[in-house]
TrEMBL record:
PANTHER family: DNA MISMATCH REPAIR PROTEIN MLH, PMS, MUTL, MISMATCH REPAIR ENDONUCLEASE PMS2. It holds the Pfam family HATPase_c_3. Residues 277-296 are annotated as: Disordered. Belongs to the DNA mismatch repair MutL/HexB family. Residues 278-296 have a biased composition (Low complexity). Residues 224-397 form the DNA mismatch repair protein S5 domain. One of its GO terms (molecular function) is ATP hydrolysis activity. Keywords: DNA damage. This is MutL C-terminal dimerisation domain-containing protein.
Length: 767
């Protein structure tokens, strides 16, 4: 016991242990190692930076710059723990304008790799080559002839961390890490005006293969052209400056105009929504050609946000930009159609290319949140969101000649209004005695969260109308109760009132009709299954009530939460063998199979289960019909995307794509598309290839398929599956249940419906 107590006593860790643990948090991936070296070069005033990755970076990383170099008296300090020239005291962090400031990069790299540094400062007669050990001490030093600047060579990254090293050298994982590294370098290539950044990959035979470069780096637009080419650069709009933020947008984001206007500025470029209209019009049954022509993307891989020149991740800003751009794209598409038509589906699923540069006082940004410094905390985030939206509205809607609906318009007709009715009122009552009923006149929705566009609402109820009117109420079960209803003598529930055919109160309700509003409301409605019902209103006298809904009354979100919980429970309880052990009890209501495992009773949706089995079979084994092209199409891919495609030609072949590879062509233009898959009149193309490349870069799954194919196969599986209302004998029920044990993911059908639920434990009934 004494020995156990002594082993469990708290003690201080050794310095080398602390350093090794902390270093593993600073440099986590290949991308983070390259990032630290490139930032050091930019901070050193370099105007030219060359990055060389041998064997995709797994063997060595070499970063060469023409910066100021390192003076001799700092040779011992450059790899010291927390040694930096950027800060002197903590208060300096409020005004730091360099990328680095912690002094951890080279020290951590020495701990995790074999580091060699070549450097020459402006006053030195000759350069110096230094080798460092894991503690950052100089092992060897000798003179070296070189021009002014610094070269840092990192060999065998993670050589002393077996798990990370194995992960890095695995071919599939290495391709993923390389793609992330290129994406990160791209962010610096775009923002670095006046700094030429290039990256090459060195193959086993020593061949240098260009990966990414920003060309002349004379301006942001030139950088975009250098990285992505003319087609992307020509599809962009420059964000227009504004003189002030409209008051309605300030109110929407709950912002006071007390902040001095001009202390925060936003500039950059974004894809033109108007080009999407013309491109899609000529794209048959798909959006691949339209997206390519318009500069729009099927993924969010080309969205860049910078704060004071620092690449960062601001998901709320990126989401806001995408939402405003999509709305403008829908309007542009709808304007081209005379009459009420739904916008094309790609307007709702495409992503804009944008480069957004935010400038603000350094003291209003906290950059010291995470080791990679990409997660920032903005002091005036609401103001930034309001300014972003105002600039986007100014730029997008005016350039696309689309009418922008006023944010101040009343939503009494288009929006979902709220009424209060007794919760215990049976739906079969056929008259609505409504001496206390009227449409809610909605005020401006205060900003809560831009991700929940139709979520929390504030409304005032004025009960004045004396007439009886049938209602059309949405069958939504609110996942949370609403607060703020006081003085009611009985239980009440909130339901959504869809527009009725008759105005309830001519004096109280003002209706502002707009075709663009109607389209926008139609395209963003949640799943609402409506049935005309009538309810008996409460006879309790009510004063005007300010009702604030604190819950998101969405059937979709309610089902999602419920399904996720149940799925987690079933995943814990079940494995494939458990399905084979289920005993069939019988069929319920011609739609569900009741099965038993030990003392637990389960109910299985016969249609959803059979549909999911058929879907997985189709998804795994389906072979496309290839449509050869009359003329091969050149694919303008980044070098990383091209390499990823070449490493996964079998995956694309399984999906019906055929390519011609010209090894003598420049990198990024070696692959030509010669045949595309075709299914049920849908022609797949460039956007589907880009989508698959994005998925392959994020995961190593060999089961990658275009999302449009998944939708088509899900519909086919649904039509061929056992339907609700079909009587099943014991053998058919047994087959459906046994098939569930062969599925990869048996818990939900392709459309998201749960396949099974646990009913109860028979032990509770004494069975």
């Amino acid at each position: 016991m004494a020995s156990q107590l002594s082993r469990s006593r708290i003690h201080a860790l050794e310095d080398n242990v602390i350093h090794r643990i902390c270093s593993g948090q600073v440099v986590v991936t290949l991308a983070s190692a390259v990032k630290e070296l490139v930032e050091n070069s930019i901070d050193a005033g370099a105007t030219k930076i060359d990055v060389r990755l041998k064997e995709f970076g797994s063997e060595s990383i070499e970063v060469i710059d023409n910066g100021t170099g390192i003076i001799e008296r700092d040779f011992e300090a450059i790899t010291g723990k927390h040694s930096t020239s950027k800060l002197r005291e903590f208060d300096d962090l409020q005004s730091v304008q360099t990328f680095g400031f912690r002094g951890e990069a080279l020290s951590s790299l020495c701990q995790l790799a074999k580091v060699v540094v070549h450097t020459c400062s402006s006053g030195a007669p000759v350069g110096t080559r230094m080798e460092f050990d894991t503690n950052g001490d100089i092992l060897a030093r000798r003179p070296l002839a070189r021009s002014r600047g610094t070269t840092v060579i990192v060999n065998q990254l993670f050589h002393n961390l077996p798990v990370r090293r194995r992960h890095l050298t695995d071919p599939a994982q290495l391709a993923k890490e390389f793609a992330r590294t290129v994406n990160l370098l791209t962010a610096y290539c775009l923002i670095s005006v006046g700094v030429q950044i290039s990256c090459v990959r060195i193959s086993k035979n020593g061949e240098k293969i260009p990966v990414v470069s920003n060309g002349s780096a004379s301006s942001l637009k030139d950088n975009i052209f250098g990285v992505y080419g003319q087609s992307q650069a020509s599809s962009l709009l420059e964000l227009a400056p504004i003189s002030s933020i409209p008051s309605d947008i300030l109110d929407e984001f709950n912002v006071n105009d007390a902040l001095e206007f001009g202390s925060i500025s936003i500039s950059g470029f974004i894809t033109k929504p108007s080009t999407l209209q013309s491109a899609d019009a000529s794209s048959p049954s798909g959006s691949s050609k339209g997206r390519a022509a318009s500069g729009a993307r099927s993924t969010s891989d080309r969205q860049f946000v910078y704060v004071n020149g620092r690449p960062c991740e601001l998901p709320r800003v990126a989401r806001l930009v995408t939402d405003v751009w999509r709305r403008c794209s829908k309007e542009a598409l709808a304007v081209s159609n005379d009459g009420l038509q739904m916008p094309a589906s790609n307007a709702s699923t495409s992503f804009p290319f944008f480069v957004l540069m935010l400038r603000m006082p350094t003291g209003t940004v906290d950059i010291n949140l995470t080791p990679d410094k990409r997660t920032l905390l903005l002091h005036h985030e609401r103001y930034v969101l309001a300014l972003t939206k105002a600039i986007l509205v100014q730029t997008l809607f005016r350039n696309s000649n689309v009418h922008l609906p006023s944010v101040q318009q009343s939503c009494s007709t288009l929006d979902q209004s709220i009424i209060v009715i007794p919760a215990d009122c049976p739906p079969e009552h056929c008259t609505l005695s409504s001496p206390n009923l009227s449409v809610i006149s909605r005020k401006r929705t205060p900003f809560v969260d831009d991700s929940n566009r139709w979520g929390k609402r504030a409304a005032t109820i004025d009960f004045t109308d004396q007439r009886s009117t049938p209602l059309c109420a949405s069958h939504k079960t609110p996942p949370k109760s609403a607060n703020g209803v006081a003085g009611l003598g009985e239980s009440f529930e909130i339901v959504d009132l869809l527009p009725t055919t008759e105005t309830l109160s001519r004096q109280q309700a003002s209706v502002h009709f707009s075709m663009s509003d109607l389209r926008a409301a139609w395209s963003t409605m949640d799943e609402n299954r409506t049935t005309p019902i009538t309810q008996v209103a409460s006879q309790h006298p009510l004063d005007d009530v300010d009702l604030v809904s604190n819950g998101e009354f969405s059937l979709g979100s309610f089902r999602s939460t419920e399904s996720d919980t149940a799925e987690s429970e079933l995943s814990t309880y079940f494995d494939k063998a458990t399905f084979n052990e289920l005993q069939i009890v019988g069929q319920f209501n011609l739609g569900f199979i009741v099965a038993r495992h030990a003392q637990d009773l389960f109910i299985i949706d016969q249609h959803a289960s059979d549909e999911k089995y058929r879907f997985e079979q189709l998804f795994e084994n389906y072979r496309f019909t290839c449509q050869p092209l009359v003329a091969p199409q050149a694919l303008e891919l980044s070098v990383a995307q091209e390499q990823l495609l070449l490493n996964n030609l079998d995956v694309f072949a399984k999906n019906g794509f055929a390519f011609r590879v010209d090894e003598n062509a420049p990198c990024g233009r070696q692959v030509q598309l010669v045949a595309t898959p075709m299914l049920e009149g849908h022609i797949f193309g460039r956007s589907d290839i880009e989508e698959m490349l994005f998925v392959l870069s994020e995961s190593c799954s060999r089961r990658c398929r275009p999302s449009r194919l998944r939708t088509i196969l899900a519909s086919r599986a649904c039509r061929s599956a056992v339907m609700i209302g079909t009587a099943l004998d014991h053998a058919k029920m047994q087959r459906i249940v046994r098939n569930m044990g062969t599925m990869v993911h048996p818990w939900n059908c392709p459309h998201g419906r749960p396949t099974m639920r646990h009913l109860f434990h028979l032990g509770r009934l004494g069975c």
